[in-house]
Write a structure and sequence with these properties.
Strand content: 5-15%
Number of strands: 14
Radius of gyration: 27 Å
CATH topology of the largest domain: D-Maltodextrin-Binding Protein, domain 2
Largest sheet: 7 strands, mixed
Helix content: 40-55%
Structural class: alpha/beta
CATH class of the largest domain: Alpha Beta
CATH architecture of the largest domain: 3-Layer(aba) Sandwich
Number of helices: 18
């Protein structure tokens, strides 16, 4: 043995084991690479698993390939995906990401973003044509005029309410045209600690963002510039303070889960902000209210003349998903073909709507019979033309939400959206405390001053990121140049 291996028997055995282990490991890695699917899709929402699996099976059959679905928790995907991209680790080929997360992946130079820039592919396939897709959904998945995901949905937001309580209290919802109308009626029926007009979250940005976007304002503009220090934003915050604080408040935060449904069932709150996806959630989690809930558009923000303010909408938006292709994907053409098949194959979207009540960004889907089918859960209220009485009848959820989809306001998400939301929430907290102690005197001025200070703070954060500011300036200049050229040609 020593003549063959001079270091002795034990080291020789260890060497042999190491060689065998290396060979086995190498073979395993080779087989793993050979058996790796053509595409791996990672998603987070449980409700999408079954319809996506059905679509994947059909796509695999038609394209003789192997696409597999993996469901992962949001926290796991967001925390690990970016670091895996940067370190070169294996990542999914296609990823369904959630509203607000694109900024997490677009902090640096555009060329370093770990997702494929889909802008030109979308343009070439006619998906930047308003006749085909709802264009206001692209900003949710964009950075510096570059689009990194296909929008899955529109998520217009309506108000949902209890039909029986509305009738009992003598509220004519057809007359709640403006938020002024809504507040006036809310002050009439609100009984502190017993009944409130509407559920409004005062510990998060959800309700306030819906109201701001409905008014036509966002935290950032299309180029990532901070824009929440406008006087109109101060006015909306002051209005929100009035509804959530003080003796004339009409709102109460119902919370989530069991607390929320208890508030709905006991009539603590009468109206609820309800995007399309939430209607399905109510149907699943609160079947007790079947046939007793109704839907209506949001009241509009009115000027002194009672007419809608310029730039305002009858709907807001809450939530969203988008499909992105990672740069690690080895077959990006197949991934693009699959992405369009999954999100835009119109024949599949009707069946999915019946499962989720989600209105897709694909305009052609809205004409499917499933979108016109009447619900046995939700109603709408109207004055009967024969009797003139306020009555309720079952309504098509698809038609209600599709009618608002074209008016869904855009949301601009950046790497600093979370910080901006935190600062805006702090402005609200300060305004609420001030209002409880001092009333309306100086309230709007205080809010405006705080908004300007918080906006400058966020601007200072953005300014430190030279990649974002440089690319945003280039994008703005390019767009201005293109508009000037177009005007000259005309």
């Amino acid at each position: 043995m020593r003549n063959i291996y001079p270091f002795g028997k034990a080291p020789f055995v260890i060497l042999i084991i190491a060689i065998i282990s290396g060979v086995v490991f190498g073979v395993m890695r080779l087989r793993e690479n050979e058996s790796r699917p053509d595409l791996i899709l990672a998603i987070q929402a449980e409700i999408h698993v079954k319809p996506y699996q059905k679509a994947i099976a059909q796509f695999n059959k038609e394209n003789n390939c192997n696409v597999v679905l993996q469901r992962v928790q949001k926290e796991v995907l967001m925390s690990r995906l970016q670091s895996a991209m940067q370190t070169g680790c294996d990542v999914p080929d296609v990823v369904e990401i959630l509203e607000g997360t694109i900024g997490y992946f677009t902090r640096g130079p555009l060329e370093n973003v770990g997702f494929v820039d889909l802008t030109e592919r979308l343009r070439e396939d006619g998906l930047l044509d308003p006749k085909n897709m709802v264009q206001t959904r692209y900003p949710l998945w964009s950075s510096r005029e570059h689009i990194f995901a296909i929008p899955h949905d529109v998520h217009p937001t309506c108000l949902c309410y209890r039909v029986d309580l509305i009738k009992e209290l003598g509220i004519d919802v057809t007359k709640l045209k403006t938020w002024d109308d809504f507040v006036k009626e809310g002050q009439r029926i609100t009984i502190p600690q017993k009944r409130y007009m509407i559920d409004m979250a005062d510990d998060s940005m959800i309700s306030l963002i819906i109201l701001l976007s409905q008014r036509g304002f966002d935290l950032f503009d299309a180029y990532g510039n901070v824009s929440f220090d406008k006087p109109e934003v101060a006015e909306v915050i002051a209005w929100f303070v009035h509804q959530t604080s003080g003796k004339d408040r009409i709102a109460f935060p119902a919370g989530d889960g069991q607390n929320f449904y208890q508030a709905m069932n006991e009539g603590l709150d009468l109206f609820f902000f309800t995007p399309d996806w939430r209607t399905a959630q109510f149907m699943l989690d609160n079947p007790r209210q079947k046939g007793n809930l109704a839907l209506m558009p949001l009241p509009y923000w009115a000027g002194p003349d009672g007419e809608p303010l310029p730039g305002s909408y009858r709907t807001g938006t809450w939530g969203g998903s988008g499909l992105a292709i990672t740069k690690h994907c080895k077959n990006q053409d197949l991934a693009w073909k699959f992405a369009k098949f999954l999100y835009m194959k119109v024949d599949d979207l009707g069946e999915r709507f019946l499962l989720t009540n989600i209105v897709p960004a694909v305009r052609a889907a809205w004409e499917l019979p499933e979108f016109k089918q009447k619900s046995d859960f939700y109603k709408h209220m109207f004055h009967d033309s024969a009797t003139g009485e306020l009555t309720a009848d079952f309504v098509s959820i698809g038609e209600i939400y599709a009618s608002q989809a074209d008016f869904t306001p855009p949301r601009y998400v950046t790497a600093y959206t979370t910080q901006a939301e935190t600062q805006l929430l702090n402005v609200y907290y300060d305004a609420r405390d001030y209002y409880v102690k001092h009333g309306d005197e100086g309230l709007v001025e205080r809010i405006q001053k705080n908004l300007e200070e918080k906006a400058e703070y966020v601007r200072s954060l953005v300014a430190r990121n030279v990649f974002l500011t440089r690319d945003a300036e280039k994008a703005a200049a390019a767009k201005a140049g293109a508009e000037t050229k177009s005007e000259q040609e005309q």
